[in-house]
Amino acid sequence: MPDITTAPFLLILTAIAAYLLGAIPFGIAMSRLFGLGDLRQIGSGNIGATNVLRTGNKFAAFLTLIGDAGKGGAAVLIARALLGPDAAQLAGFAAFLGHCFPIYLNFKGGKGVATFLGTLLALFWPAGIAACFTWLVVALIFRISSLAALIAAVMSPIWLAFLGMPNATVFGVALAILILWRHRSNIARLLKGTEPKIGKK
Length: 201
Description:
Layout: H1 8-22, H2 26-33, H3 49-53, H4 58-82, H5 85-100, H6 113-123, H7 125-142, H8 145-163, H9 169-182, H10 184-192
Helix pairs in contact: 1-4, 1-5, 2-4, 4-5, 4-6, 5-6, 5-9, 6-7, 7-8, 8-9
């Protein structure tokens, strides 16, 4: 973990602001903007880009991906610029929690993959690129988004440790654990061989 140099009061404010930013449901917004219906009643019911893609609207899915990744990245970059690296990691974690448990949707949110990747890219881009590449390779081979996400998340603390930011490995482990927890139903379907593939409506 990084050295804690920011005042506790400022860290609390950072966590609250980052959580509220992370809680913005871009998937819901895009599905309404493009007239796709209630995203929570489509496919897996998830509010992320993968489920938006199941509607068949690739542009809406792309915008959702950018929005969900961007809010995590923005939280990290703003907190780092204003306060420091300790606030940056806290902001990234809080934004991730906001996406997974958004106050705007009665704490029923997404699984956090795009927000996780955006956060990691902003926090330490070499590890972020490695995680994105891991996701891409697994997705291309198996065509299963959840499997790609799980492997990318599990590998992220390793990328952080070996690519030059070991003080963020605890951060990486915490996010990986939460992603595994949020994907527990996907893991069950993967074990049964019933997990849908990318692009399936």
